[in-house]
């Protein structure tokens, strides 16, 4: 396992997410299928905001009193979310890039609410899975609204 392959996977996952996110017309960004569900912008915020939390977990910080820099921030546009999140994404990716082979194999990460320790490299790959799950949710929303869906399967 090496950080180069992991970073490529994370970047490809995000590239495809951005294609989806930018394809939703602005008039639909606050749409949600029901009152319990996130709307399009909340999904984007949830995904891009998670990079900050993932980094704190990788750095071994106690998440009990975690405070997201996205808390109480007004929703605007997908582009605005991406711009605000860019430094957090860069810091997350830089951290991963600096991990060496053996560091990726350490089983020392505690995810909040999960007792079993996680292997660093596998944990990082799970962050891409989290994003992919929400890409599927996004596609489902788009299908419900008959919004043209971009080809993310290139």
TrEMBL record:
Residues 10-137 form the DinB-like domain. SUPFAM superfamilies: DinB/YfiT-like putative metalloenzymes. Pfam families: DinB_2. It comes from the Bacteria. This is DinB superfamily protein. It comes from Lishizhenia tianjinensis.
């Amino acid at each position: 396992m090496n950080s180069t392959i992991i970073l490529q996977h994370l970047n490809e996952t995000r590239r495809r997410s951005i294609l989806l996110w930018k394809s939703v017309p602005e008039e639909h960004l606050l749409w949600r299928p029901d009152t319990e569900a996130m709307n399009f912008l909340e999904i984007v915020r949830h995904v891009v905001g998670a990079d900050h939390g993932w980094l704190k977990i990788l750095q071994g910080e106690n998440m009990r009193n975690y405070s997201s820099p996205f808390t109480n921030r007004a929703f605007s546009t997908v582009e605005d979310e991406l711009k605000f999140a860019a430094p957090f994404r860069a810091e997350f990716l830089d951290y991963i890039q600096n991990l060496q082979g053996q560091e990726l194999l350490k089983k020392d990460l505690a995810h909040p609410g999960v007792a079993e320790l996680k292997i660093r490299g596998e944990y990082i790959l799970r962050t891409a899975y989290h994003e992919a799950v929400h890409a599927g949710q996004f596609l489902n929303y788009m299908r419900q609204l008959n919004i043209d869906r971009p080809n993310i399967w290139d």
